[in-house]
Design a protein that fits this description.
This protein is of the alpha+beta class and 227 residues long. It has six helices and six strands, in the order ααααααββββββ. Among the domains are: 59 residues, no CATH class; 78 residues, predicted glycosyltransferase like domains (Thrombin, subunit H, Beta Barrel).
Amino acid sequence: MEQVQEIIRMLFTRDLKTSPVETAIFLIVVFGFFAFLAVAGVMRRRKEQKRTSNFLNDKWDSLCRIYQLNDDEIALLEDMSSYLKNPEKKYLLLANYQAFHDSLQAYSREHTVDKQLLESIAAKTKMGKTEALLEELPMQRRKSTRKAVQLSGYVAPIEHSDAHIEARIYDLSRGGCKMDNPGKRFFQGDDIKISFKLGEKDYRNIPAEVVRTSSFGKVMHVSFGHV
């Protein structure tokens, strides 16, 4: 930032006797510098988006091979993935039952589901029982003020069978929560599962996504669900 301020200061303090050609060259250099920064930023973001997309596709392809899904089964799952918040994360349909269940429910409201095909997918993936739903949490939305709490919770990558990493929860609503980011291991866009106890009720392995981190990565803000 100081370098930018110095360039601007130089621009406005140049000798008035400077020739038009020199001034033009100077302006071209300055604006070329800013144009370079803008283009470099765009290219960096596109490269990161491509890297993330390739990573998600690799996870999807790997799970399809592990479960030995055929073309018809893969086609059905890809259609269902359009009901995810982020359809690029279609691997969630094979990694998390709740994402699978919610996407199937949304898909079935608009399409006729091939039951035989669905049973084949369920048999191959060996999905367990549905994870805990948020039936009794405060009825606030993400844009509303969340309820401040002090809860002991647990978190883990969504591929793990159970949330087992201890993490403190600081606020909570029906739509999401703010909690510790153990070891700064999770980042924006990561898919996780969370467990905690509220009152007398246990909520286990709730699927969620990290919306952003704060406090230099020590805290994460998450949104429940993927549909």
